[in-house]
Design a protein that fits this description.
mainly alpha, 19 helices, 0% strand, Lcp-like, ER-bound oxygenase mpaB/mpaB'/Rubber oxygenase catalytic domain-containing protein, oxidoreductase activity
Length: 385
């Protein structure tokens, strides 16, 4: 069999592969009726330095022990380099995640249908909040070691995915033979490429300069994350160039219109529009989405057109490119770029929970550096109370 056919066959096989380690835990919890008790314990398990709770069923403890460290091939120097990139450009990463990556996820009909079956079509604030917190924990200075919070985050994420697989598979509303396993490893790989490769592409599309080394390191830390999520190591490309090729062949080739994707996008745009007072500027949100995603994806998901705002956003992207070229020499240019990104993220934080206080937290080391640079989108805690 030719190599390309072997590769395609391996990718197709991922459609029928779940996460055996996490899936076995969820099946045991459901059969024993201990799901709620375990949820209460895991809610208190938040930091890498915390010992694994004693009051957990043995299958859960074994799972947590087996998944508490990154793969042996992890290069912590490259992880640290990705952190430095995020210190400089984290607010821009957040912007592209919000406007581009989330919408591109909805351009995939199968994962969008999974969201519809979990009744989360009308909860964009929750999905955005969870994604933002995941990325913030990942991009701390030592996400996999002491002082970080990412390991429990990713362990619990795997269990959530396994629970979704279990209940959708047993719902009678999903045909595994025809559609594959819900939240299969192919979907996981696609999401990884959207949040890594496509974020870098989106940043460059709106005029944010990203060096090849920064792009490689940012993708690398996501590849480590993929391994912790249970994605087979041989399914994840080793280099950014290979990942970009797979993104085109696997992810972008899966894009298409769906009723679920259109509704998810409409609800997300409505959430973003609430960031802007009044109605006069509503068109700028859709124009910004159209700047980051491809025209075909925007059309499939029925993102509104606005010729005036599209021109304004395009002009803004050109201005950002000019500012980026002068960023190292101009404090004013730096301030303009960082303020634009932090304004979006701070607005997102305020509205993620429909006006209610949010538990979204920024790692302390990242918060301190952003505060020192004057770009932290969330005010520090009030220590006077």
């Amino acid at each position: 069999m030719p190599e390309t056919q072997k590769t395609q066959s391996a990718l197709e096989a991922l459609k029928y592969q779940g996460d055996p380690l996490a899936d076995a835990v969820i099946a045991d919890l459901v059969s024993s009726g201990t799901t709620r008790a375990v949820n209460e314990v895991l809610a208190r398990f938040r930091d890498n330095d915390q010992p694994i709770p004693e009051d957990l069923p043995e299958p859960v403890r074994r799972y947590l022990v087996a998944t508490d460290a990154p793969p042996a091939w992890t290069d912590l120097n490259r992880v640290a380099a990705a952190y430095e990139f995020f210190v400089d450009d984290g607010v821009h990463v957040a912007s592209v995640l919000s406007f581009g990556a989330m919408v591109n996820c909805y351009a995939q009909p199968r994962p969008s249908r999974v969201l519809s079956l979990t009744h989360r079509l009308n909860q964009p604030h929750r999905r955005l909040s969870e994604t933002a917190q995941f990325v913030l924990h990942l991009m701390g200075s030592n996400p996999f070691g002491s002082g970080g919070s990412f390991v429990p985050t990713i362990q619990k994420t795997r269990l959530i995915h396994a629970a979704v697989r279990y209940f959708i598979t047993h719902s009678g509303e999903w045909d595994v033979a025809a559609d594959g396993v819900p939240l299969c490893q192919q979907d996981m790989l696609g999401a990884l490429l959207i949040f890594s490769v496509q974020v870098i592409d989106g940043m460059r599309r709106i005029g944010v300069a990203v060096t090849d080394r920064e792009a490689e390191d940012y993708y690398y830390v996501w590849r480590v994350t993929g391994a912790l999520l249970g994605i087979p190591a041989d399914a994840m490309p080793e280099t950014l160039d290979e990942a970009q090729a797979l993104n085109a062949r696997l992810v972008e080739a899966s894009y298409g219109p769906s009723a679920e994707g259109i509704e998810l996008t409409r609800n997300l745009l409505r959430l973003y529009e609430n960031l802007v007072p009044g109605k006069a500027f509503d068109g700028v949100v859709a124009a910004m989405v159209r700047q980051v995603v491809t025209p075909q994806v925007a059309d499939w998901l029925e993102v509104p057109r606005s010729r005036g705002w599209s021109r304004a956003v395009d002009a803004g992207a050109r201005a950002m490119r000019l500012l980026e070229r002068s960023e190292d020499r101009s404090r004013l240019a730096t301030a303009v770029l960082d303020k634009a990104g932090s304004l979006l993220l701070s607005g997102s934080v305020r509205t993620l929970t429909n006006g209610q206080p949010t538990a979204l937290t920024i790692p302390s080391d990242l918060r301190e550096k952003w505060l020192a640079a004057g770009v932290c989108p969330v005010a520090p805690p009030n220590r006077g109370r």
